[in-house]
Fold each of these.
Amino acid sequence: MAEQALVPPSWQALYAPWAPASRRSYGWSTPFILILTYAISAIPLVILMAVAAAGAPGGLEAVAEQGEAAVSGDVMLPGILMQFALWAALIIVWAKAFERRSFASMGFTANRWLARYLRGLAIGVGLVVLLGGVMAALTAIAPGAVPEEMRDMTGPDDADWAVLAGGAFIGFALFAIITFLIQGGAEEVIFRGWLMSTLTARWGAVAAIIGSSVIFGAFHLHVMVSGVAYGLMAVFGIAATGLFFALYAYAERGVWGAAAAHGTFNAAAVLMPLAMMQVSEPERTPGDLFAEVLERATGMAGVEATEVGPHLLVQPGVFLTLSLIVFLRMRARKA
C-alpha cells in the first residue's frame, strides 16, 4: 500500500508529474480563483494610490477625473510590482496548499532554466523589434492606416536626447525593467504555469492552451473603456499574444522562457514611448510621464485618445503567425 501511494496521479501532466497526494482544481472554478486572488492582490495598489492621490494636487477628485494619469509613476511602479508579485504568490499558495503539487508541475522545471530564461529575454527583444518593423512597414505602405502619433518615432527637431543619459531617467528605467520582468513573469506563472497545467489535468493540453489564452484575453477587458470596437480588437490581440506564450511554454515544457520574453515585451512597450515623451518634454520627470504612457500602452486612454484602424491588426497578425510557426515546428519534431 505504501508503494502504491507513491504513484503519481493518472491525469495528464503538462510540465512535470504531479505529487502522488496532489488534487486537481475543477476546470470551471479556475476563472473564479483568478478573479478572487486578483481582487485580493489589488488591495495594496488601491490603498497606495488612494494615499498618494489624497496628498497630491487635486486629491481624490483628480484621480476620479483623470484616472491613473493623476498618480505619479513613482507610486504606480511599486504598486504594480506589489500587486503582481502578490497575485502570483497567492496562486502558488493555492497550488501548494490545496492542490498539493510541486513547483515543477507549474513549469518551474530545473532543466537548463537559466539558459531558457536568458533565451527568453532575447526573444522578448526580438518580439518588440518584429512588431516595430511590421508597424513601420505598414506606415510606409499605407500611412493613413496608422495613427499620426505612431508614424514618426524619431522625435521632434528640438528633442533633448541627453536627458535619457541623466540619472533620473536611467534610475526610473532600471526600476521599470525590474518591475515589468516580475510583472510579466508573474502573469506567466499564473496563466501558463498554474492555469494551463490545471486545465491540462482536467481537459487535456489542446483545451488548456486555447482556454488559458481566452481567459488571459478576458482579464484585459478593461480596454473596453476606450470603445467597444477598439476594445474587441485589442482583446483579440492580447489573446493572440497569450496563445503564442502558451505554445512557447508548451514547447519548452516550462515557463522560464515565456516569463522572460513576456517581461521584456511589456517593459519595452512602456519604456520606448516613455523615452520618446521624455526627449520631447525634458522638463517633466519620468514618473510624471509614466502614467500617461501606461494608459496608452494598456489601452486605457479613453475613446478620445484611441483610434480604431488596421494598425490594431498588427499585434494579432504577428503573434498568430508566430504561433503557427511554433505549432508547425512542434508537429515536425513529433513526426
Note: Residues 110-334 form one domain.
Amino acid sequence: MEKGINAYIKERFHLGDVDIRTYSPLTLAYIGDGIYDLVIRSVVVGRGNTKAGKLHQTTSQLVKAHAQSEMMHAIEPELTEEESDVFRRGRNAKSPTMAKNATMADYRRATGFEALMGYLYLKDDFERLVELVLCGLEHYDAKTGKTIEEKQGE
C-alpha cells in the first residue's frame, strides 16, 4: 500500500506517532480545515484554468460553513460508526469563535465536518476522505443546481 501524505510528512520531519483518538475535536477540525481547502482548491483548479480571483471565489463558496453543513447532510448516512463519533465530537465541541456569515447550526456541523476530514487525513485514509468529499460535492451541486464549472463561469 502506498504511503499517505501525512505518513510522508511525519517521516520527513521526524514526527513521532500520536494516537489520533487523543486529539481534541477542535485540533482535528484545525487540520481538517486545511486539508479540505486543499482538496477543494485541487478540484477547482483541475476543472478549469481561469483567473486567480475566480478560482478564489469558487473555492470560497465551497469551503464556507453553510456549504460544509449541506455536504454533511449528504454524507452523514454514509459514515461508519467511528466516523460518526468523530463528526459528533467535532459538532459538539465548544469553539471560542464563530463564522461571520453562518448560523450556529451550520457552524457546528461544519466544525464536525472539518474534524472528520482531519481525522481521516491523520489516519492516512485519504481515499475515504476524497470519497466523502465527492459525495458531498455531488449533493451540494445538485442542491444549488450548479456545478463547479458553472460557478467558475459566473
Note: The CA atoms of residues 92 and 108 lie 7 Å apart.
